Fold:
Amino acid sequence: MLKPTCKTDALEGRVKFRAALVRWFEKHGRDYPWRRTREPYAILVSEVMLQQTQIATVLGRGFYTRFLETFPTIQALAEAEDERLLKAWEGLGYYRRVRMLRATAQALIAEHGGIFPTELDRLLKLPGIGRYTAGALRAFASDLPAVVVDGNVARVLARVMDFSAPIDDTSGQKQIWDWAEGLADPANPRIYHSALMELGQKICRPGVPDCLGCPVASFCKTREPENLPVKRQKTTITAIDEHALWLLDPGGRLLLHREQAKRREGLWKLPTRQAAEISSLPVLDEHPYTITRYRVTLRVHDGASLRDSLSPATGESWHEPEDVLALAMPAPFRRVIERLLR
Ligand code: SF4
Structure:
C-alpha cells in the first residue's frame, strides 16, 4: 500500500509528534458530550459505557444521555436499586460494568465524601478503576499528566513503532504502555490523549488505515500497517442454540425467569431449557445475537402443550403482559418478547 516514509522516530521527535497530532485534532476532532465536560462522574460513565460498546451505539441510541438523566449524580448512582440500575443499562450488555460502576460510586461516597481523588494510586484503589480508567480520569477530567492506552491507542503505537510482537501478552502490553508514557504530553494531557484516541478511531483504524491523511505519518515506522497489531489470542467464534419457552397460563400471564447467573444477574428473560426437553416443540420466533465468543441462535418454542404438566422452576414466575416490558431484560429477549406480545 501507498504510505509516506518515516522521517523521524516518534520518541526522538516527540515534541513535533504531539504538536502534529494536536493540530490535526483541533481541526478534525469530533464533538462528543464527554469532551464538553470536566465532570469526572460524567467522564467515568462514558469510559465505562465505551468499554465493549461502540460510540455510535452509545450516542445514537441515547444511552449516555439517558443514563445521566436517570442517575445525575454519584449519590444517585450509589443508591440505585438493582431493577432501576439494570433497566438504565438495558441494551448495552455486559451488565457487570454497571454493577461495578455503582460499586465505584459507593466507594467514592464512603471513602472520599463523593469527591473523585486525582492521584493515580488513590484512583486505582477504587473498585472497577484500572490503569486505563484512572489515566482517562486524570487526563480528561483534571488535565493532569497521564498514560491512557485503549485498543485504538495500542494499534496506533504498534504501527508507529513497527512492533511485530503480540500486543496482548504481558511483555507486549508493557512495551506499548512504555511507549505511550514516553510519548504522552505532560503539558496538554486532555487534548493530546483525545487526539491519539481519535486518530485510532478515524485514521489509523483496524485493517487498512488512511495513511495518506495521517498527521503523524512522517513519524510512523511500519511499512505494512494492515498487518499490525499482532495479537496472540485469536478469538474463535462458536455457534450455539439457546432454547426458550413461550408459555402463558390460563389467565394470559407470561412465564419469565429472573437470571441468577453472574453475566445477566437480576435480568428477566424467557425460561430456557435443554434442547432435548423442548426442541421438538413448534418454533414461534428465532433471533440471532452474539455474546462474547458465541454466535447464539435464540429459538422460542411454543409451550402451550406443556401448560398443564409444567410447574415453574426456581426463579420463574408469572407476569401480566402489560407489566412485562417495564422489566429489565437482555436485548435479544426483549426483541422476541416484543414481537410475540404484538
Ligand atoms: S495511519 Fe497509522 S499506520 Fe498509517 S501512517 Fe498513520 S499511524 Fe502510521
